[in-house]
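# step 3/5: fold
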Amino acid sequence: MLEVTGFIFSFAAVCLSSAFFTFLLRETKISHNAVYFALIFISQLIVTFQALSLLKGINPPGILICNVLILLIAVGIWLFNGRPMPVMTGIPGILPRLAGVIGSDKALLALTVLFGFCSLITLFFVILVPTNSMDALTYKLARIGIWAQQQSLAHFETTSMRQVIFPVNWELMLLWPVIFLKRDYLTVFPAFFSYFGSLAVVSIFLKSLKFSTKRIIWVILVLGSLPVMILESSSIQSDLFIGFLLFCSFYLFYFSVKNRDRKAMIFSAVAYAVTLGAKSTAILFILPFLVVFLAMSLKEKGKKFYKPLSSFSMYLIIGFLALSAYNYVLNYLSFGNIFGPSSTIGQHISPGLKSFIPSFILYMVYLLDFSGLAAIKSINPDILNGISYFLGLLGYKLSDGVCIGEFSGLNHLFQENFSSFGLLSYLLILPLTVFSLFKCRHNKDRHFYPAVSGLFLLVFLLVLILAMGFSVWCIRYFATAVILSSPVLAFSYFKKTNLLKILITILVALNYTLIPFLNVQKPLPEVLKLAFKIKSFNNFRQDLRLRMDTDFYSRYKLYYLLQNLQMIPDNAVIGLIFSEYDPVYPFFEENPGWKIYPVRYETFLSEKSFDKYDYLIMAGVRQNICPVKEEVKFNYYPDYKNKTIHFNKNEEGKAKTFYANRDNIIIFSGKPSKMSNILDDKLILKYFKPVKVINLKTDGKYGKGLYRVYKKL
């Protein structure tokens, strides 16, 4: 109870201090006050965690002290400046007016009801169901668990470079409640709020262009129904958060150049600066924003177009240094590169212009999204053969366009990593963004500004292909792009009922109705059944957390491992000798008293850090990770006759290691992208004794897994 009270107090203090800082801006627009409040709220959390990290004080007392100090400063400045208060006029009549407008259009009325229905189910998921995304369990939540444990954002030894090198601002939003509650109860709420925040700021922008209320509601209902939007609103993916921040930047820049408002320009830059520290994809949006901002500046400022761009750039640099540079500096100090080791960077970069055409074709095919239509799976072999044949005619192979993973055909799942725009992709989204190119020629604001927003999606697609090639794991980035380009949906509303409006209404209604029930990660009927079977709330959440994210009826191997660790006492220090993509976060939830540390096997042996851990858990017979150093020693050679490799005579107690390129082909010289350590328990038996071998051999549904548990002698 004390932990809950502490978080409530912290939340209230941040809200109040953010409100007082917002009052100091003396903004007359209610909508702008809401946007400024949100940006100040987020920025305050980032600054708080950065300051506490330097002191290794990220703990409940440290956070509460910072919250109180900032609140006192905010109140003091507010009192000194004459207690300014925002003008709150027109709010009481908003709901009756909206009800009247919605009631006058049957399509809007039906979709609004279904939107509310879907939102309530999503809220149920947000409150009760934890994320089971492999991405979260291996990286996003895993780094949060370690930060909370070490009370600092400092880099730590890890088997997954993503846990340390990627920007941190999004995870700070998730870290906040975990510090107090010791569990991930509230970690899905930031994405849920980002969903509604994105819809709200889009409506603010359209309202400023004097679009009718009906048209604005139509845009919001269509945008909010897209599978990628609904699915990510109950996840811990950051794309909706990024979309909210970037649209705030877009809208405030528009308002600034239109009205010569410096305050809006500053906050536009702050919004983008926070984004650069939240997710690396913000870098991919730099060119789309430059194109759109240049077009807007030319329209409003003519020959002096450079002035708003230079002002924005200056504020952006300052904002970046204050709010987002922290982890980039840590990367430089640790690896000599602000983005991390070159081996990790190289895994996410496209092979170059050679991949452009096949990557473009693969994205165009994959965006033909059949989320929820399982029958599509049966024709995917034919789709693959057809694409391979077509690419062959052009002189390419299917693999030429794929940077990470593989292309397996059209998507048929309602799943946060694979869904995009559903059946509205080719019916509405892509045609409207292309159509917007012609609308950009109009000088009227109501035509030009929604049209120019379509450039975000088109330019982003080109940048994504050039930078990263094709990957199904990049599909979720389109959630951010579609938020930025959503104003083009204003061109799709018809006052009178016609065939197209009926078809769009049906598809939107189906999304709101079916996604909560057919979401493969957490189908509502199965979640409800489980809720009545498991009495313990934490056991219920752990069961859901370890259901596979592409098949609810199967479990991750870790589920069976954790059931066999009853011999490990509370407050034990556990070293996990896991590979890069093995989930580690469920250990933090299984027993908050445990101290969990990822262990790099070769470092563990070379530094002889045997006394640091009470228990060791080895996964498999090899540890696959990314190399930290560019210059490595190849202590093995090939045996082509027997198709194997031989190791040179090792120094006693050293790990046997071999290296591979990004395609998992073993190399014998050059710069590697991946490395594997052979796990030999004979090297540690002088210091640890084996206590359990867990060999998971099942029917293939759950996969195979070998885990060895050791206790310190």
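# step 4/5: annotate
The two ends are 38 Å apart (CA to CA).
# step 5/5: archive (pending)
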